[in-house]
Write a structure and sequence with these properties.
Blueprint (H helix, E strand, L loop, with lengths): L1 H13 L4 H31 L4 H45 L3 H7 L1 H19 L2 H21 L1 H48 L1 H5 L2 H51 L6 H47 L18 E12 L4 E12 L4 E6 L5 H8 L7 E6 L2 E2 L5 H5 L2 E4 L16 H10 L8 E2 L2 E2 L6 H15 L3 E5 L7 H17 L3 E5 L11 E6 L2 E7 L16
Parallel strand pairs: 3-10, 3-11, 6-9, 9-10
Antiparallel strand pairs: 1-2, 1-4, 4-5, 7-8, 11-12
Helix pairs in contact: 1-2, 1-10, 2-3, 2-6, 2-10, 3-5, 3-6, 5-10, 6-7, 6-10, 7-9, 7-10, 9-10, 13-14
């Protein structure tokens, strides 16, 4: 509960329009509870004194109307606050993700980020929607206890002692339930990761019954069972705690009525009995909402941990990014190293030290076996990874964290594990040019671009790569990086890529870095480098170019 309240207060401080709403919600809840308590007190007074006056009836009606208005306003205001808070929190988390170094995101894990955005935030929202009713019922309980003390303070002391014993038992069971819910959340992360594998690896799983059955048992069934068991344990403890709370109330009621403590008058006993029965609903609500609050506390803790993890290595935003098409003359890696540590077997892989130069109008081929460090080298070159030692030097100046984004703005990339957005984000008025290129890529019969949006991206892997190539081409950056682009293409488009597109980019003064195993096209390049187990073992110029005959192929542009 404390964590949720702190989150509530912080949100009011950081979201410009929410502070007044939060104050209004709490005030409406407090007044709503006060009006509820006043209605019960007035009823008890009328029963004890047999009041039948028109004024008392009017006062009771006014209290009831005010009570309903306060409840309505508190729920509407909180709904507005909650909806805006959820939207803003998702944007804040998304901005933090984009402001974190890629390597740091890979260490955190995509499943944790997705779970925070898609599961934890709605859990918090569900708890926030209960805040008005919770505040109303808490005020009712407090107000009723104050009225009980006014009727008989000695009897109230006995009641409070019994309530304390009941709360202690409830708290013990609630703590056990909280631990179960926290365990369910941790197992839920692993289950979410399994669901990702289920969707992304469906083809591989369908190819092997043994693998499929083993995955269903270990990756899904066992984790789902653990999540269910932890949630059942948590809910069971809450049910027992709730039953204990109800039993405590009835035992306390019998204790007061039959005990005849201090010779309490009939008026006092009647007031206590009326209040006890009236308090059953508020106390029941408070007990029922505790599991939701507890789950929200766990969700708040996970989100706060996520935000702290993202902030640990947050990249400072660049105020005025350099223009992508100007300002680049020379790029160099000087004794750059980067180290991976595999947590499963504690093995270490180090790339480097690497010394490498890249100049405008140059085509550089990167070769090497699987796991030799080719993609890691590209991520260091493009500024996605930060070197552990050495420098990335742009135009004679070492790149720092403050201007690493400027370095990334020099590149257009198509990685081997590329992601294709369904919209041309960051581009304006490119429909005509983009649609004309689709014909050259033989995609015009499947895809159209309207207002910067692809009509579909449900295509084969090779066709999606062609669209990714189109996007990179439209960006018109000084340096292009292609990671195994031609691996999924037929011979025709391989020729288009190697024999037409790459030379054209060279003529336009672009630098091109190509990770490729197509050695029969290496003569198109200016230089070839080879990596072997993280070491640069070859860096040589292409001495001669073979003459290729045949008709010219279609080209972009």
């Amino acid at each position: 509960m404390i964590k949720l309240v702190k989150f509530f207060v912080r949100s009011a401080q950081t979201i410009r329009y929410s502070r007044s709403i939060v104050i209004a919600v709490f005030l409406a809840g407090i007044f709503g509870g006060a009006f509820n308590t006043a209605a019960v007190i007035l009823l008890n007074y009328a029963i004890a004194h047999r009041t039948r006056s028109l004024g008392a009836m009017a006062a009771f009606a006014g209290i009831c109307v005010s009570m309903v208005i306060c409840k309505y306003l508190s729920q509407v205001w909180l709904m507005r606050f909650g909806a805006r808070t959820v939207a803003d929190l998702r944007v804040v988390l998304s901005r933090q993700v984009l402001s974190s170094p890629l390597r740091h995101l890979e260490e955190i894990g995509a499943h944790r980020v997705l779970a925070a955005i898609t599961e934890d935030i709605p859990t918090i929202m569900a708890a926030l929607t209960q805040a008005p009713n919770l505040s109303i019922n808490v005020v009712i309980v407090i107000g009723s206890l104050i009225y009980m003390g006014w009727l008989s303070w000695k009897l109230l002391l006995i009641v409070l002692a019994c309530i304390a014993a009941g709360v202690a038992g409830y708290h013990f069971l609630e703590q056990r339930a909280r631990r179960s819910y926290r365990s369910a959340q941790l197992e839920g992360n692993l289950l979410f990761q399994g669901f990702q594998a289920l969707v992304n690896g469906a083809k591989e799983l369908q190819m092997s019954r043994t693998r499929r059955d083993d995955f269903l048992v270990k990756g899904i069934a066992e984790r789902a069972r653990m999540v269910a068991e932890h949630r059942i344990a948590g809910t069971t403890n809450y049910v027992v705690a709730e039953s204990w709370g109800e039993l405590s109330i009835f035992l306390l009621l019998g204790f007061v009525v039959f005990g005849q403590f201090g010779g309490a008058s009939t008026q006092v006993l009647t007031g206590y009995v009326l209040l006890f029965f009236y308090l059953m609903t508020p106390l029941q609500f408070i007990l029922n909402v505790v599991p939701t609050i507890s789950q929200a506390d766990v969700a708040v803790e996970r989100i706060e941990n996520m935000r702290m993890a993202l902030d640990e290595r947050r990249m400072e935003p660049v105020q005025e990014p350099a223009l992508a098409s100007t300002g680049w003359k020379h790029l160099e890696l000087r004794s750059v190293t980067h180290t991976y540590r595999n947590e499963k077997d504690n093995q270490v892989f180090q790339l480097g030290p690497i010394n490498l130069e890249l100049n405008p109008g140059e085509i550089l081929f990167v070769t090497g076996g699987n796991g030799s460090g080719k993609t890691t080298l590209i991520k260091l070159l493009t500024g996605l990874y930060t070197p552990e030692s050495g420098d990335v030097v742009l135009n004679g100046k070492a790149v720092t964290d403050a201007d690493r984004e400027n370095l990334r703005h020099q590149f257009s990339t198509v990685f081997s594990d590329f992601f294709l957005f369904n919209e041309l984000y960051g581009m304006r008025d490119v429909d005509s040019s983009a649609n004309s290129q689709l014909a050259l890529l033989q995609l015009d019969h499947k895809v159209r671009i309207e207002n910067g949006v692809f009509s579909t991206i449900e295509l084969s892997q090779g066709q999606r790569k062609r669209l990714a190539l189109l996007v990179a081409y439209l960006e018109d950056r000084p340096i292009y990086v292609f990671d195994e682009w031609a691996a999924d293409q037929d011979p025709t488009f391989r020729d288009v890529f190697y024999l037409d597109l790459l030379p054209e980019l060279k003529r336009r003064g672009k630098a091109v870095v190509v990770i490729s195993h197509d050695d029969r096209y290496y003569d198109v390049g200016d230089r070839i480098i080879k990596l072997d187990f993280g070491k640069l073992v070859k860096d040589e110029r292409v001495a001669e170019r073979s003459l290729r005959g045949g008709a010219p192929v279609a080209r972009l542009g």
